[in-house]
């Protein structure tokens, strides 16, 4: 499967300045920008910046960023699921995962997350993929936002809906371990029926186990 990537961008006005939301960006472009010190949700900023540059270089890897001039203040990643996760077990070339989305606290509430997802889906090539995301409450910044698990989940769902991702049921043990965790997905218009069936089988792998 050929992994096409078409660059798109939009400007977003916010109380803290104007942002450019753009991507997929190349590793070279990513490396040329500064990475905000408050992007700490997954790794220390320098390490995460390096990881994003590596993902951008993968054939299927996509990084969409929000930047204030030369400073990256938010991003979303797309790549094949982790080999240790069930979602990679089908070896599906047309299933990619929205692996991480992060926006610095200063720009939260300015629709940056929604804009990252909107720009992601402007690329027609996304119609060739099943895009999944697994939401786990232990990754959420409950302390920083002061929200409870259900309030945060509602915000995450609304943000994912902006990219066309909707809730899907699954018996995945990690997702099932807490009712706030969830699987969300977007099935592109050109995804083959066989791939949708394969995805359904991945969602329910324990169906016949008693």
Automatic annotation (TrEMBL):
GO BP annotations, alphabetical order: acetoin catabolic process
GO molecular function: acetoin dehydrogenase (NAD+) activity; acyltransferase activity, transferring groups other than amino-acyl groups
SUPFAM superfamilies according to UniProt: Acyl-CoA N-acyltransferases (Nat)
Pfam family, one: Acetyltransf_1
Domain named N-acetyltransferase: residues: 36-118
Name used for this protein in its record: Acetoin utilization protein AcuA
